[in-house]
Amino acid sequence: MTEGPTITTIAQRAGVSIASVSRVLNGLPTRPETERRVLQAAGELGYVPNSVARSLKSRRSNQVGFAIADIGNPAYLAMIREIQPLLKAAGYRLVLHSTGSDIAEEIEVLRGLGERYADGLIMVPLRMTEEHLKMFHAARAPIVIIGAAPDGAPVDNVRTDSRTGVRLALAHLHALGRRRIGFLNGPPDTVPGAARAAGWAEASRALGLPAGPELTEVGDFYRADGAAAAGRLLDRVPDLDALVCANDLIALGALDVLRRRGRRVPDDVAVTGMDDTDLATLAWPALTSVSLGSAERGRAAAGLLLDRLAGDGQGPRVVTVEPRLVVRGSTAGQETP
């Protein structure tokens, strides 16, 4: 096997010392002419730096992890589109982890921070456990949580208020004259599921609307689960005139079922989603949805982490992104920009 180029062969080709080559390849100051000759020789010889060895020496990987529940969820894709270019501009690669919201998977990602596979981590956990909190305290690299972080956690936190988001959706439907309104939620043992259930109960009471368990169905935050939940709810309460859905994927599943059953949207049943993903504008009719600022949360999380990586030593910080209702055809209201 032919041995690849080394700093010795580069030094010979460039006519400089090995020490000079080492300084150039490690980004240390040197004379411009020396740097030019070394880089030219390295390029001619096809030299590829050993990034693994360099990271072991510097204790930096120049990588940042991003752990999410579902790589196919467009809300997370909106975050990625904002996070990746900010990290790239700062010299970091983004490493994705799709955990399936499995707690054991998330704990393994957190444990991996101790092995220096990444210099920092952005995480969107759907469930928060004592084991998460323990790993936050043990982490040897900065962590930013998108979602609600527990009190006392040594992490930066970007959150939104999905309780208010549900209230916005319900108030909009009530203003349109809808009174038999059902709620399709994700798992109530998750952070977003619990918050959205609380928002539903609070808003229903405030508006004088019925909010008993017969008007609620629970599935998961996926389109197929939304369709199944919508079918069960419509079987039980066939005279529903509106549906509040805990995310856009659930809402798309509900639209599928309503279409199959011959229920017109929004004439017979108005539908709202949450997250305001790209799918909301592609649905038919276009989906009214509560924006939780996925892109904005991604930008904020990247900014917080880059501050930490640059040496910011202040205590844990919290950034809150306010929800906003975006009205489209699925509720028959006038569309908002």
What do these coordinates show?
There is one protein chain. With about 325 residues, this protein is of the alpha/beta class. The chain has helices at about 5-15, 20-25, 30-45, 50-60, 75-90, 105-110, 130-140, 160-175, 190-205, 225-235, 250-260, 280, 295-310, and strands at about 65-70, 95-100, 120-125, 145, 155-160, 180-185, 215-220, 240-245, 270-275, 290, 320, 325. It has a six-stranded parallel beta sheet, with helices on both faces. A six-stranded mixed beta sheet has the order 7-6-8-9-10-12, with helices on both faces. β3, α7 (about 130-140) and β4 form a beta-alpha-beta unit. α1 (about 5-15) packs across α2 (about 20-25), α1 (about 5-15) packs across α3 and α8 (about 160-175) runs parallel beside α9. The longest helix has 17 residues, at about 190-205. The model is unreliable at about 50-60 (pLDDT under 50).
CATH superfamily of the largest domain: Response regulator
What is the alpha-carbon Rg in Å? Answer: 26 Å
Strands ordered across the widest β-sheet: 2-1-3-4-5-11
Quantity of strands, as a count? 12
Fraction of residues in H or I helices:
40-55%
Stated plainly, the CATH topology of the largest domain is called: Rossmann fold
